[in-house]
Amino acid sequence: MRYGMVIDLKRCAGCNSCTVACRAEKGTPPGILYHRVEKYESGKYPAARMQFRPIPCMHCQEPACLEVCPTGATYKRDDGIVLVDHNKCMGCRYCVLACPYEARQTLRRIDNYYGMAARTPYEMLKQKDLDKGTAVKCDFCVERLEKGRLPACVETCPSQARYFGDLDDPESEVSELIAVNRGIVLREELGTKPSVYYING
Amino acid sequence: MIDQTEGQKEWGWFIVLYVFLAGLGGGAFLFSFILIYFDKYFAVARIGALVGPLVVLIGSGMLLFDLGSATRAYRLFTTAATLLSSWMIRGAWILTAFILLGLAYALPLFSWFSWLPWNQASGFGQGLGMVAALLALVVAVYPGLLLGVIKSIPLWNTSALPPLFFLSGMDTGLATLVLMSLAFPSVVQADGLHLLGAIDAGLIVLLLIALGAYIEIVRQTGVTAAASIHLLKTPLFIGGVVIAGLLLPLAIFICGAYVSDVASVRLMHGTASVLILCGGLLLRLSVIKSGVRIIVR
User: Fold this and answer.
1) Where are the domains of chain B?
2) Quick check: helix, strand or coil at residue B24?
3) Which residues of A touch B154 (CB under 8 A)?
4) Element counts in chain B: helices (H) and strands (E)
5) B157 to chain A nearest CA, in Å?
6) How far is Cα B53 from Cα B136, in angstroms, rounded to an integer?
7) Per-position pLDDT tens, chain B of length 297
8) DSSP SS3 for B226
9) Across the interface, do B68 and A186 touch by the CB < 8 Å criterion?
10) CATH number corresponding to B13-289
11) Which residue of B78, B88, B92 is in closest CB contact with A68?
């Protein structure tokens, strides 16, 4: 069992619904994004194009973040999901630097939105496990997976560009998509073996 | 196309100071140990042997400040399994061992601690010193490894970095010894200053080779690395590190070799040593601040 994601860039319109869904699901404070959409230009006029690449945590099989973590706070579950134990993280930010995908951030402070004096009850509930100064990242929505649901970004995507499933099962939807469309991973040369695949447009 | 030309923002001044102080402390201890071993300038060398571990201790303190919450630092020592993978925890143990063994070697050099059952002349004391000197080498190399294994930052991810930091650590350590020797005019006279100056000049030549090779190799590594080098080559780097921190002290040491007037030699070597220390700090600052991350997509 290895959870993985396939993102079909032919279908991605760069709407950032995934980013917003993630933020709502995780209740992240201002400045903290577990998911982002990189926007870049390719080609030259008159064939120039605006392209988008959504970037969650790659949940690598050989995570660079796990390798450098000195306290064992970063760990990989048997299902391939890479998580941070906030009770073990000491805030050295080595992993934030080491991740080639910039999937991790340091939770420097927890601010309130819109200049509000206090956090909302929703934020307090969602942020109860956060510890200032530690590393935070996408966790493939483990709490939703446990209830049999899909990660928030996958469920939300209005153009259905995202697929989620078991990469170890050759007959799963994600495995077939990767095989048929020649899915690629980012920065393959670094040997991190990501579990997030892209189908290039 | 390079469109990501910002250096990393995660590690800042605390790490810069740590990398600087670790090299300086390791270098100061190593040279002091060698001087004590050959029974030269004992009055200065024993202070250097004490200052080395203390400076590394202060440097390690910078790492604690960097955590933001020093109360979390104990988590570093709660697991041993990460020793197999993480250079940070290996470094933490190396620093701890060096500080303890270095102090254990240095303290009996002072009469206050003559009650300790060993000293630098006893077999145990000398063993302590040798192990601590070996660890001092590692302490000076280790910051280069800490940064060097981060493959997302090509400016750091090169085998040319540890030798650079190591040589600069030795250089700044020796400069510290030279500065301290100025306080003992009767112990270290013109010939002593000439000797230390000659060793330091040799180190500077090696450092120039290491720095030149480092910059040229990184420049040819790829677009991100080239962007890092572009960021690195500020007037502060060229003026502060290369000219004021390396070329000028080298010229002073070479000229100093032909000056026999003690007062002039003291002034020249003192100036050169201060310049070396400033240059060493600026080198760390430049390398750490200019670390551009690879483009994700």
Assistant:
1) 13-289
2) helix
3) none
4) 10, 0
5) 10
6) 9
7) 445 588 898 999 999 999 999 999 999 999 999 999 998 888 899 999 999 999 999 999 999 888 887 788 888 888 888 888 889 999 999 999 999 999 999 988 888 888 888 887 788 888 999 999 999 999 999 999 999 999 999 999 999 999 999 999 999 999 999 999 988 888 777 788 888 999 999 999 999 999 999 999 999 988 888 899 988 988 999 999 999 999 999 999 999 888 888 888 899 999 999 999 999 999 999 999 999 999 887
8) helix
9) no
10) 1.20.1630.10
11) B88
Residues A3-199, CATH architecture: 2-Layer Sandwich (3.30)
Sign of CA dihedral B238, B244, B250, B251: positive
**Continuous segment of H or E residues that includes residue A3:** strand A3-8
Comparing CA positions, the residue from B157, B131, B128, B170 lying closest to residue B31 is B170
Q: B195 near B189, Cβ under 8 Å? A: no
Contact A91, A105 (CB under 8 A): no
Residues in chain A: 201
Q: Does B81 contact A at CB distance below 8 Å?
A: yes
Six-digit token pair at B287?
């390398």
Closest residue to B76, CB basis, from A53, A71, A98 = A71
ipTM, two decimals: 0.88
Residues of chain B found within 8 Å of residue A101, distances taken between Cβ atoms: 296
The reply to whether the predicted model has a pTM over 0.90 is yes
Mutation pick from A44, A67, A71 vs chain B, by most beta carbons of B within 10 Å, is A71
Please name the member of A70, A101, A102 whose beta carbon is closest to the beta carbon of B76: A70
Residues in chain B, total: 297
